[in-house]
Amino acid sequence: MFSGILVGKNINLRLVEVSDAKFIYDMRQDSKSKYLSVVNSGVESQVKWIQEYKKREFKGNEYYFVIESKEKESLGLVRLYDFRDDSFCWGSWIIKDNAPSSYAIESVLSVYDFAFYELGFKKSHFDVRKNNDKVIAFHKRFGAIIIGEDNENYYFNFTLQEYNETRKKYIKFVAYNG
Length: 178
Prior knowledge:
5 helices
């Protein structure tokens, strides 16, 4: 049974709660969020969105996490959604500027470990805005493959098999190697 917390080496990912609305709203106003869908209707609107999200989470259709330090400082966000047969999408990924760069890698490893090993997905599909060069480069280094594009996005796939190989390269960022 999933406890609601993904325990990492230096960070944890815990499920979003209504009390996180202001943090989420503030993060989505940050300049780093320019490649995410726009959120500009205030904290109360965010509260309502989280309340609706919690229904999807309860059904196991979506998981939205706060990335936090071991000292419980909120550092970022990441979401798993759009579950299709054996594939999941993930995104809404944003991390504070002052967070150590290794937290990005560790948060992604936590997402993939959870989705592939706990939820049983066999692949991931996701999109990245074309101008988001740092994130595109990150995903390519991680082993994701661009399978299509439109005017705005690149579309990626990443399989469990590819992840198993990539995970070996980043094992020093994994809390549990078993």
